[in-house]
Design goal:
InterPro entries: Cation-dep_OMT, SAM-dependent_MTases_sf, SAM_O-MeTrfase. This is O-methyltransferase. With 230 residues, the protein is of the alpha/beta class. Strands 3-2-1-4-5-7-6 form a seven-stranded mixed sheet, with helices on both faces. Helix 4 links the parallel strand 1 and strand 2. It has eight helices and seven strands, in the order αααβαβαβαβαβαββ. Helix 2 runs antiparallel to helix 5 and helix 7 runs parallel beside helix 8. Bound molecules: S-adenosylmethionine.
Length: 230
Amino acid sequence: MSPSPAASTPAANHGEPTSPDVAPKPASWAYAEDFAVEGDAAAQARVEAEPLGVEPLSRGTVSTLTFLARTVQAKAVVEIGTGTGQSGLALFAGMQPDGILTSVDLEADHQRQARKAFSSTGIPSQRFRLIAGDALTVLPKLSDGAYDLVLVAGDTLEYADYVQQGLRLLRHGGLLLMTHALWHDRVADGSDDDDETLAVRSALEAVAENEDLVATLLPVGDGLLAAVKR
Ligand SMILES: C[S@@+](CC[C@H](N)C(=O)[O-])C[C@H]1O[C@@H](n2cnc3c(N)ncnc32)[C@H](O)[C@@H]1O
C-alpha cells in the first residue's frame, strides 16, 4: 500500500515512510477512542474547557493518560498547562493515592476551574499545587530528577523547551508525555510550515533523536507522545 501523498517521514527516521498493513478505519478508531469509560468529572471538565478556549482532550487520550500514570505508579507529577483540569483528573485517576500534581498555567481562570473540578471529585487540596505563571519561568525552579511523570501541554510554540525541562525534572524510568503531538493532522503534512506545526515537529524530533529516551508516538486523539527516560 502506498503512503498518502501528504504524509512526511519524521526527520529522525531517514528513509521511506512505512505504512500500516491495514489502514485504520474510522469506525475502529472511534471504537478505540470510546473504549474506556469516562467518569462524570472528566466529562464535565471537557464541557467546561471549550468556553474558556481550551481545546478538550479526546476520551482515548484521557484514558491513556490514566493508564500511563498508573503504569509508572506516578507519585510526583508536573503538568505544563493546567487548563480546566481535564488532563489533571485523568492523571489523578492513575496516580498513587498520595501522589501530588504540580500544575502550571498562565491563566488563573483556567486554574480556578481546575481547582473546582479536583475538589468536586474529592481530591484533597494538599494533593495539588496549582502555580499561576509562565511555564518557562516556573519550571526552572522545580527540582532535578524529582518527578515520575511530566505532561507537556501549554504553548505549542514552546514545546521543545518544555521537553528539555521535562528531561531535567524526570527521574530515571520517568515518563514524558506530550498532548496534541500530531497537531490537528498538520505535523504529518510535509507541506505545512505553520509556526506551531514546525514547533511541534521539532519537539518530536528532539525526543526521537535523544538517546536518553525510549519514545513512541501514539495516534490517539490529537496525538500523544510518550517517552521513558532511561
Ligand atoms: C491545550 S490547554 C491544556 C489543558 C490541559 N492540559 C488539558 O489537556 O486538559 C493549554 C493550556 O496551557 C496554558 N498555557 C499557554 N501558554 C502557557 C505558558 N507559557 N505557560 C503556562 N501555561 C500556558 C493555557 O492557558 C491553557 O490552559
